[in-house]
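Input sequence (373 aa), recorded before submission:
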Amino acid sequence: MRVDGRGEPGEDALADMFLRLACGMRRTPFRHAISTLSRLPSHQVVGLGVVLYLLPSTVSPIFRHPRQKMLVFLSRILYGIHFCETNTGTVPDPVAQNLARGTRKKPIHKPGVTNMRKSKLLAKLRDGRPARICGLGHFIPAYIRMAANAGYDCIWLDGEHRCFTDREIQSMLAYFHLFDIDCMFRPPTKEKTRLYRYLEDGATGLMIPHVSTPEKARMLVDAVKFPPVGDRGQDAAGLDADFYMSGGETYVDDANRETFLVVQIETPLAMENLDAIVTVQGVDGLFIGPGDLGLRIDRMNPGFTLDEAIRRVAAVAGERGLAWGCPAASPDHVKELYDMGARLIAHGSEFFALTQMLEACSRDLDRAYGSVD
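Predicted structure, token format:
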């Protein structure tokens, strides 16, 4: 390795390191390579990481490890370098020594115990308190941070009426975990494997539309709950299980305890079957869809009004000790539902926030410009 007069890597250090790694020189331990990386500028480490990722895994024995592990390893190095450069302007020798020795951060979990994120929504419900829920229907990662900062416990992410790709959902769920806020995802499907894959990808709970029979509720429980409650398939290697980095002996129990299933009451048939639906073990909550239920009441004339349907849901859920809720458009409506026993009240969304903001700003422009424009 060529060095300058101070014993530091010279201008050709990156080229040297690449050659050693690519050629797989067995006389150069990998930890020595990492020590050298720790003294390189951050932008060079990034460049090396990109090159290593693009290289075929058959180039050298050094690439026997999965590429994702290589990237994670390099990203940790880069983070340490960035932290030190930001706070001290240099990378101190102890950092380089720790990196050279391959020192790993000690796990914060107990051996064999899944380090699963705890649901804020469920914690509130178990204490008899209302969960703070808002809605989101577009790919806006910043909104997740804003909602968490505003004190919300959960975001209702709508995939029924809005279009998301699977990769967009996975990306957004990572933000939910980063900012420690629940995601109640309303999926565009009832397919079993896709439903529990959303949970594996990090969703805290699922809200399923148009659940009108106890048979459908039972089918959903089978899809998203592990035995003996349901029949969910086990992987224990997704974001929900820390990608298998935290053990897994308690994963099944943790998942059943810290994820939830909410079914939507949106049809007159669901109202007929309400008493049977609430008895299905594994259903954690009811959520009234006033738009669809109101539409069907108006068109089908089942003999009751929307207000009467809401009050019946409140009564039946209350007798069963089951959480229930509904969207609320105003503070007065929130208070009314809360006084009826609702604890799953959704209030606020990016759609109406943007609409109201633009309308208010347009009025500001009217006052500023007058009739000029």
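Checked by second reader. Residues 120-357 form a domain with the TIM Barrel fold (CATH 3.20.20.60).
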